[in-house]
Structure formats: structure tokens, C-alpha cells
Amino acid sequence: MVQINPSILSADFARLADEAEAVRGADWLHVDVMDGHFVPNLTLGTPVVEALSKATSTPLDCHLMIEEPDRWAPQYVEAGAGSVTFHAEAAAAPVRLAREIKALGARASMALKPATPVELYEDLLPELDMLLVMTVEPGFGGQAFLDIMLPKIRRARRLMDKHGLQMWLQVDGGVSASTIEQCAEAGADVFVAGSSVYGTDDPAAAVQALREQAEE
Ligand code: DX5
Ligand code: ZN
């Protein structure tokens, strides 16, 4: 099943509740948390996640681009996130952290920067509900899709199949009408889209169009 998760990084931060409403029909709202250390950009934290979770019925998919996720990730579950993604490069104890996120009642997901090989984490996949393969260097919306990541998406899906895992495979960065089909063909089933949704006049229609393309 294909899922489309608009990234509010490309939305108007002064009108987040309205921007959530503008993508009605989306599966999840993707919330990019950046700390100015793990990535060279600073966005939002638990108070905004908590307010947004009360303002929308769409579940929140929190992507933590932060140092020390072992320390901070559980607070995002408590703030209302339905799914929490930490970065493999930042986690001290990813197995313990994934188990803690799940014990608190959210889906646990791990992200890989472009230079991080998926093969390193083959043994950890059964602990995760989702793997995020970044298709840009994390930090900013509106960057060009890195098509050199397509083989990694394929290898990730192959490893999941090899172990008989039903987990989701998310892609994030530069996903648009011109790149989503390649991602779907490579094995991704959860698609984050920021500028290609919020950069249009009709974000809800953009979500629907992306969904149809990915389902083809
Ligand atoms: C980038 C973020 C993405 C970003 C994607 O570091 O993780 O979620 O919002 O934006 P687009 O879809 O514009 O590349
Ligand atoms: Zn993201």
C-alpha cells in the first residue's frame, strides 16, 4: 500500500493547523525536527509537535535530525507522534531506542543518510517498523533528488524480502512527480514530499496525483 506524507517543512509555520488541513487525505504529516547540530538547520521541537497533534487528526511522522536521539526521541512519542524516526548515525543504542519507542506506543523507524550503507544494519531491520532511505543530504527542503540512491532503495527492499519483513520503506528528499515512480519501482512504499506538495496551488490535489503515480 502506497502512503504519501507531506512534509510541513515546506508549509507556512505560522499557519500549521491550516496547512495540515490543506493536505486532507494524506496518510501522515511528516514533521522535520532539526537541532542545528546533526544538520545545519533548526526547526521545531516537542511543544510544536504537541500543539500540532491536537490540531489535526492526521497522524504525525516525526523525523528527528538531531544529536542524542536516545535522550530525546521518547519525548516525541509523549508529545503525540505516531511514528518516530531517528538517524542511525546519531543513535548510541538503536535497538534499545527502537524498543523504547514501540513500548511507548509509536512506530519505530530509523533513517540513513546518503553515505550510510543499508547493509550495516541488516541485523537490526526486524526491530524496526520502517526504514527511511534519505534521497538528499538531510537539512533542507527543495533539494534535487539524488538518483544515485535508487540502488540503495532496491537493496533495502531486497534485504527486507530476504528476512520476510512486512516493514515500510520510506524515501525523503526531492520526491516529486518526476521522481516518485522510480522510487516506487525500486521498492519504496512511503513517500515524503515537501516542496512538490506545499509548493503548489492545491496541496491536496498534489498528494492525490503523487499517490496515483506511485500506485501505477
Ligand atoms: C530534508 C527533510 C525533508 C524535506 C523534504 O532534510 O528531511 O523531509 O522536508 O523536502 P522536499 O520534498 O522539498 O525535498
Ligand atoms: Zn524529513
TrEMBL record:
Kindly indicate whether the keyword Kinase belongs to this entry.
no
Q: Which CDD domains match?
A: RPE
Q: Which residues are substrate-binding?
A: 7, 63, 139-142, 172-174, 194-195
Q: Where is the active site?
A: 32 (proton acceptor), 172 (proton donor)
Please write the reaction equations for the catalytic activity of this protein: D-ribulose 5-phosphate = D-xylulose 5-phosphate
The source's domain of life comes to Bacteria
Named from the GO MF annotations, one term is: D-ribulose-phosphate 3-epimerase activity
EC number(s) from the headed UniProt entry: 5.1.3.1
Its required cofactor(s), as named, are: Mn(2+); a divalent metal cation; Co(2+); Zn(2+)
Involved pathway(s): Carbohydrate degradation
* Keyword Isomerase in record: yes
Per the entry, the cofactor note is: Binds 1 divalent metal cation per subunit.
What UniProt keywords are attached to this protein's entry?
Answer: Carbohydrate metabolism, Isomerase, Metal-binding
**Residues reported to bind a divalent metal cation:** 30, 32, 63, 172
Cite the InterPro entries for this sequence: Aldolase_TIM (IPR013785), Ribul_P_3_epim (IPR026019), Ribul_P_3_epim-like (IPR000056), RibuloseP-bd_barrel (IPR011060)
Q: Which PANTHER family match?
A: RIBULOSE-5-PHOSPHATE-3-EPIMERASE
What the record says about family reads: Belongs to the ribulose-phosphate 3-epimerase family.
State the function annotated in the UniProt record.
Catalyzes the reversible epimerization of D-ribulose 5-phosphate to D-xylulose 5-phosphate.
Q: What is this protein called?
A: Ribulose-phosphate 3-epimerase
